[in-house]
Request: fold
Amino acid sequence: MPLALYIARRVAVLVPTLFFVSVLIFSLQKLLPGDAALALAGEEHDPVAVAAIRAKYHLDRPAPVQYAIWMGKVLRGDLGESLRNRIPVTELLAAKLPVTVELAIGSMLIALAIGIPAGVISAARRGTVIDATANLVALSGLSVPHFWLGIMLILLFAVRLGWLPASGYVPPWEDLRRNLTTILLPSIVLGTGVAGVMMRHTRGAMLETLGADYVRTARAKSVPERLVVLKHAFRNALIPVITLGAIEFGRLLSGAVLTEQIFAIPGFGKMLVDGVFNRDYAVVQGVVLVSAGLYVLLNLMADVLYFLANPRLRGS
Reply:
């Protein structure tokens, strides 16, 4: 199958998915408690001011009409204006996206550095103490709540040892060293959880490939075990791991709400929480829609990588 045809088929599936997501985002937004018009009008709730706000932001129109107006603007690249500070949502997202991307990249680097080697070693030493230890560490990373781990890391490295800042964020173009110190702890918190998932999937894929006929043939030819594991088994086991990595990276880009709140990281997660508390409909809709779009796009990239790495799909 040609790559272009494969991508076209995947896009044909993703477009209705994004439409459904947009309807879901708009519908769930309406379930938020409170009234945005009353909140913006102030404590006196002047009826004239409330009516003007409803008319300006189309809050007095039926829900289907509101959705059609909103989606029409979205298709033109206009995500609306923040109800709180009157700043276009696209500008707010452009300011927060680099922070979330940096946090996601840092978390993925930690996850890959821990998860893949641990999965390979665990599979190669199946049934040994090393295997049991690696599984225990992976399950711990999956089970420990992020908010608890974040608080413990702050107490240890920021409060007691004083090595790293407890919270805050400094852009890399202002001070690279401080930027790395502020992003390290939240990256560890998110990266350990993803590392557990990567380790379990890498181990499973490695065990499957180590039991394949071509691996047994290589061992029968007296190929060194190191080459059997790294050259024959590991290369083929990477196919599902690549797909998983792209999906997990998309999840990280969607915003880690608790982690960003704990460390006061001004990314998508914190922006989403602030938008919900402020009843800022445009901000919440913009954050969730962009996050969903990034997640879907990364899933498409994962499918393309899987297609390129799997010869059986190219031949079908």
Summary: The two ends are 6 Å apart (CA to CA). Residues 43 and 50 are 11 Å apart (CA to CA).
